[in-house]
Give the backbone structure.
Amino acid sequence: MMATGGGPHRGPRRRRKPGREGRRRAWRKGRWAESFSAWYLRLCGYRILARGWRCSAGEIDIVARKGRALAVIEVKQRASITQAGDAVTSHQRRRISRAAAAYLAHRPALANLFVRFDVMAVRPWRIPLHIKDAWREFEPGDGGVL
């Protein structure tokens, strides 16, 4: 005998592992978050120099300039600020730092600017949170500049 309401009880639903469609959806969400963050940064007076810049060392989501500061920005879309902050691992920080060094090697005119590593936390239905100077990357003997 079948229970009313649509059939036999099958137990709790299990989440499927993200396949190709899941990865594609995550990529689209990430690109949307980057576009939204770039729009917000422009409203705050930043000039966007690059988006999705790639090299063999890694990828930089957004490179922006405001005055004498060059912001290398990692965009994270998560449900909460804490999750977004935790999503930037030490491995990612090293990768982004190497990519920033490569970017500056390609753009020597920017080498005299103060380089800062920021995180943009994008949450659903909220204005992005810009975490300035989220981490610092020090090379031996450089005084704190890349």
Q: What stands out?
A: Residues 53 and 84 are 21 Å apart (CA to CA).
